[in-house]
Design goal:
Distance between the termini: 27 Å
Low-confidence stretches: 1-8, 68-90
Helix content: 40-55%
Largest sheet: 5 strands, parallel
Strand order of the largest sheet: 2-3-1-4-5
Shape: globular
Number of helices: 8
Radius of gyration: 18 Å
Strand content: 5-15%
Number of strands: 5
Length: 220
């Protein structure tokens, strides 16, 4: 049975993405189309503010597997609250716990789009309507997008950045979850963003949301 909601109910759209595939662009389009909030790097600032710590420390550890070597405590795979550490040695797994708190708080309080940070897994048992997406594209198309948005100005550098970032994101997701990053079985919908304009993908997702949850876009 489809889960019927109205526009005042909380729901969350989570987006995993290959680097350069346009996942952020799709997320922003969906947020605008449905009149809801969008969170990407903004999550880091919220997590830092809630923890009373420097946003720069969070950003340096964004979507990074914790370095367990030299850690004074064992990693607990997300069960229970890890201790907070002062200074530059704050543990990446503690950052993950704080991000989880922010993601769950957002899910409790407002409809929103959340990009990355294994949000689909964090909310897997959360009592909120949710849709998980993964956006990918051939490396050649992603290189063009990376260069087009001026992240890199050389094809080789853009390709290297895409491959490196994807490895980091996959390691992060696979470490903290019992699923595989980018595996279609891990998500409700997956898209190759090179096959049609992003506006077309946004329209397809909007139709899916309307039919599955009964939620109407706020702009036509």
């Amino acid at each position: 049975m489809n889960q019927e909601l109205d526009n005042k109910s909380n729901y969350v759209i989570t987006i995993g993405r290959q680097f350069g595939s346009g996942g952020r662009e799709l997320g922003k389009m969906l947020a605008e189309k449905f009149g809801i909030e969008y969170y990407d790097k903004k999550l880091l600032l919220e997590a830092a503010n809630r923890a009373g710590m420097s946003p720069e420390v969070f950003e340096r550890n964004d979507e990074r597997v914790p370095n367990l070597m030299g850690s004074s405590v064992g990693f607990n795979m997300g069960y229970g609250q890890l201790p907070w550490y002062n200074g530059q040695a704050m543990m990446a797994d503690s950052i993950y716990t704080s991000l989880n708190d922010v993601i769950e708080h957002l899910a409790d309080t407002r409809p929103c789009v959340i990009v990355g940070r294994s949000a689909d897994y964090v909310l897997r048992s959360h009592d909120v309507a949710k849709l998980s997406l993964f956006v990918h594209a051939p490396i050649e198309e992603r290189v063009k997008r990376i260069m087009g948005r001026a992240d890199k100005d050389k094809e080789g550098a853009a390709r290297t950045l895409a491959v490196k970032t994807d490895k980091l994101r996959a390691a992060y997701y696979n470490f903290y979850t019992d699923k595989r990053w980018g595996d279609s079985a891990s998500y409700d919908l997956t898209f190759d963003s090179s096959l049609m304009p992003m506006e077309g993908l946004c329209d397809i997702v909007a139709i899916y949301i309307r039919r599955r949850f009964g939620i109407e876009p706020v702009r036509k």
